[in-house]
Specification:
By secondary structure, the protein is of the alpha+beta class. The chain is built from 13 helices and 22 strands.
């Protein structure tokens, strides 16, 4: 299994306390079929997750557990593959004129699985739970954007943000839990936090610790009823166990890099459904050193890079080429920017115009400096040795740059050393990647004071455009601001944007229907999946 090494920015005593007609009321809730009861059906859709530390989605710190809990709990807002919000618990919303508040009207038809109604009190309680959640919990970063949440009616809440940031709404994708049921208990291991009671498509039928969780279609779910009535979730030790279980037919779904398609297609055991992830690959330049402060050299490298060839040979076409740091699937992506199609002749022209010449005919470029000395065109490319794809990109870039007169050294380092060298500025170019946040904010990468601006890039106009994009209010102004920003970044080339990689949901032959995973929810649309056990 190819492993992607990326920097990371940027988620039971059976309950007797549950939300009734309001968040403070309590009803009995039983999450199992009763004492000694077992689910008799053996053949059912089988998924996997790690051993849950907790099954309270707002205290949970584990990604695979979060995926499963999305089947039980509805988020405040849903988001499509373009990053646009659409209703979930919140039925409608209106941003304040200053961009620092949003007023939300909640769906009045959402029921808890104990029969009570979801109200504004539950939303406020959910936010308070995030405030008290442990560091590293999946939704803790909501607090980077949201300052407070208040109830103004039984089905109305107001969120107050720290600032008028254009993508504040994207932070409001956290699941909503019941105030009455959880009753202020923030200990992840407490009994109530081991017995989920939600408002989503499925509810918990039974749980054998460290073995399996059984879900069954919720009778109180207000939306479209799922075609699959029951789901088994096996508890697995890790990614390798997931792969082994899927290959042996013990589970029906595997979420992994789309580049594994050949492995499973060749075995003829699955279908594959791709989605564009937030994994962004790029070539970065070190602006702490003089060489690539010259924009002409950055443009020469961009023209020398055969991006379309890399999409075939490195990504196997399981990715989306991008010309800016914004995901091409995003509603904010600007297509009409400066393009650098593979053109070695154009690359050589930029080098020549910048004073880099091959005076002695040895195939290597040099330049007469102001002090009369001659400087050779040499550069190092930093890459982490564990990442096969990045090594391939570095090798191809070296080949192309050598052909136009560069002298290139590839510096392959174990990830820890690679990361430290990036931070310390010990490189000329880097083949890098970010696992970008679902909340769009480019300032951290390209702003003069950006927290992840390890390249040292600084440009006053870019800083101004970054501020305009961050502070825009409303879809129209935000789209225009990001358009201007992307055009400038494509012209300036602090990064050469390569691609966003695809992830995929692989399913067994038992699974069919309308399968439409997204980065935010790989089980998006699961109510339209079908399951039929094959021979």
């Amino acid at each position: 299994m190819k492993k992607r090494i990326l920097f990371l920015l940027l988620t039971l005593c059976l309950g007797l306390s549950a939300c009734g007609q309001g968040g403070s009321q309590q009803d009995d809730f039983t999450a199992t079929g009763g004492e000694g009861t077992e689910m008799e059906k053996e053949d059912m859709l089988t998924l996997s997750m790690r051993v849950p530390e907790t099954m309270n989605p707002l205290l949970n710190r584990e990604e695979t557990v979060d995926r499963i809990l999305k089947l039980i709990y509805l988020p405040l807002l849903e988001f499509d593959e373009t990053g646009k919000a659409y209703p979930a618990v919140a039925e409608s919303w209106e941003m304040g004129a200053d961009g620092k508040t949003v007023t939300m009207q909640l769906n009045r038809n959402i029921m808890w699985q104990n029969g009570g109604k979801l109200t504004a009190e539950d939303v406020v309680y959910s936010f308070r739970t995030i405030q008290n959640a442990p560091e590293g919990s999946v939704y803790k970063k909501v607090l980077n954007y949201v300052a407070d949440c208040t109830k103004t009616g039984d089905y109305t809440v107001i969120f107050t943000f720290h600032e008028n940031f254009s993508d504040n709404l994207s932070a409001l994708r956290f699941p909503v839990i019941s105030a009455g049921y959880y009753d202020g208990n923030n200990d992840p291991a407490a009994n109530v936090n081991q017995t989920p009671m939600g408002n989503g498509i499925y509810g918990m039928y039974s749980y054998k610790k460290a073995a399996e969780l059984i879900l069954t279609a919720s009778e109180t779910y207000h939306g479209e009823k799922p075609l699959i009535s029951d789901i088994r979730v096996k508890i697995t030790a890790g990614e390798d166990t997931d792969i082994n279980a899927f290959e042996r037919g013990m589970t029906d779904v595997l979420v992994t890099d789309a580049m594994e398609a050949g492995r499973y297609a060749d075995e003829g055991i699955s279908g594959m459904y791709q989605f564009t992830s937030n994994a962004f690959d790029f070539i970065g330049f070190n602006f702490h050193r003089e060489l690539f402060q010259d924009k002409a050299l950055r443009q020469a490298v961009a023209y020398a890079l055969p991006k379309e060839s890399l999409m075939d040979s490195v990504y196997l076409n399981y990715g989306v080429m991008t010309n800016t740091p914004i995901n091409p699937k995003s509603w904010l992506y600007e297509e009409n920017v400066a393009l650098y199609d593979h053109n070695p002749s154009m690359a050589s022209t930029f080098l020549k115009n910048s004073g880099w010449l091959d005076e002695d005919g040895n195939g290597k470029l040099e330049k007469k400096m102001e002090n009369g000395q001659t400087k050779q065109l040499k550069a190092t490319i930093l890459v982490n040795s564990e990442n096969t794809g990045r090594r391939q990109i570095a090798a191809k870039l070296k080949e192309e740059l050598t052909a136009i007169g560069f002298e290139i050294t590839i510096d392959q380092q174990p990830f820890a050393s690679y990361q430290q060298k990036f931070i310390d500025g010990e490189y000329d170019m880097i083949i890098g990647g970010w696992d970008c946040s679902e909340v769009t904010d480019l300032n951290q990468f390209f702003g003069t004071a950006g927290s992840l601006n390890y390249t040292g890039y600084t440009n006053e106009e870019v800083d101004r455009l970054l501020a305009a994009a961050r502070n825009a209010i409303g879809d129209g102004p935000t789209l225009l601001a990001y358009s201007s920003l992307q055009k400038k970044l494509a012209e300036e080339l602090p990064y050469i944007s390569i691609a966003y990689r695809n992830q995929a949901v692989f399913v067994s032959k038992n699974v069919s229907g309308e399968i439409s995973p997204t980065e935010f929810n790989v089980f998006h649309g699961i109510e339209k999946w079908t399951y039929e056990k094959g021979e």
